[in-house]
Amino acid sequence: MIAVTSFAGMRVAVFGLGGSGLATARALIAGEAKVTAWDDSSESLEKAAAEGIPTQDLKDADFSAFAALVLAPGVPLTHPKPHWVVEKAKAAEVEIIGDIELFARERRKISPASPFIAITGTNGKSTTTALIAHMLKAAGRDVQMGGNIGMPILSLDPLTPDRVYVIECSSYQIDLAPTVDPTVAVLLNLTEDHLDRHGTMEHYAEVKERLVQRAGLAVIGVDDNWSASIADRRAASGLPLKRISTKGSVKDGVWAIGQRVVEPFGLAQTVIIDLSQHPVLRGAHNAQNTAAAVAATRGIHIGLDEVRSGIMSFPGLAHRMEPIGKIGSVTIVNDSKATNSDAAGKALSSYPRIHWIAGGKPKTGGIEDLAPFFPRIAKAYLIGEAAEAFAKTLEGKVPYEICQTLDVAVPMAIEEAATEGGGHPSVVLLSPACASFDQYRNFEVRGDAFRALALAVDGVVPFPEVH
């Protein structure tokens, strides 16, 4: 645990007692803050009480007595409307922050030399975070990984100058971290997402930009206009910047040419890695993720041989273009993490012939923008609330079946792919382009269900699981 001492002796309100909220309360108490915690869920309150965390209904609290409100990232800060606890804190002019901000303040106070790499972006941030952490571990560094992936940031091991913190940051977390100042900040890309929580694309981009503003080195993807503008503003400030791209060379950065990741050395160029034979890091999006990981790790002085070795030994992440099994010439791929069309497009672009399982709780825009990949789709198997709308988009362009549930879609897709004439190498791909919440608690549960159903089909040979 990282004890938070910056509020020692002060009263602090904590709202939201899920995993990160409980970790926050523990860390503040360990740092001798006077914590008052609350949650709208009675189950969460019971868990906190069982740990001895002081609880009180914050509706009845005098907020003028608090030095800060520490808010869980899942609690609405601005949109669609501020949560009642936010309104109370603002009325009392109490600062509202989150656990990433607490970490940043504690790092500045206790161990400012601790390397801190923070990663954000609409898509690819989990893979990039895990890849950076893996590369650093393979290079012999003492690494802690957490934040929006894995463990809450304040549950990680205590700060030391030689310990590297690799932290995935969601836009919700950045919105609660006004002074976050990573050693290296990575912004991969920006596409429309989470507008229910940020209101407009402009505000969403502004929140994401905060992560790179105070960073020692900013690593920014420039393949979309929003991120490219952020990179231009960073460059205009004169602060250190590495651009990354999959669309051509960039000045003072790392780029990908197809599956080759390239870094400049003076007037020459060096191919860092060729991903064409990598078992997991396929497609242009993973070339972007890898370019970002190269720029970030090189930014804290990891050697070229160590970088290459770390990339090639990376096993991937579950639910992110994860090969889970094979039947004949057909590979079965779990990409449950693809919860929007942009993420699904990354997977669809990576395979030449696809039996595509898609659908769930739809997001804005549907799948119209995936039309360039329709020729790759042998057949679509549609599930969830989005099935009817997706069918209308595919009508006359892609054969489809409305299956509604995975237990219907998965065996049908595998059987039809395996018996397809001509022995075409193909994939059965779960890449839903939708959230999971109509049928599953989260994308992990959906991906686990897909894996279990696929491996239960006769003749499917499993690949080793990744974690």
From TrEMBL:
The keyword Ligase applies. It catalyses: UDP-N-acetyl-alpha-D-muramoyl-L-alanine + D-glutamate + ATP = UDP-N-acetyl-alpha-D-muramoyl-L-alanyl-D-glutamate + ADP + phosphate + H(+). Pathway: Cell wall biogenesis; peptidoglycan biosynthesis. GO terms for molecular function: ATP binding; tetrahydrofolylpolyglutamate synthase activity; UDP-N-acetylmuramoylalanine-D-glutamate ligase activity. It is found in: Cytoplasm. Coiled coil: none annotated. PROSITE patterns: FOLYLPOLYGLU_SYNT_1. Keywords: ATP-binding, Cell cycle, Cell division, Cell shape, Cell wall biogenesis/degradation, Cytoplasm, Ligase, Nucleotide-binding, Peptidoglycan synthesis. GO terms for cellular component: cytoplasm. Residues 319-434 form the Mur ligase C-terminal domain. It comes from the Bacteria. Belongs to the MurCDEF family. Cell wall formation. Catalyzes the addition of glutamate to the nucleotide precursor UDP-N-acetylmuramoyl-L-alanine (UMA). This is UDP-N-acetylmuramoylalanine--D-glutamate ligase. It comes from Hartmannibacter diazotrophicus.
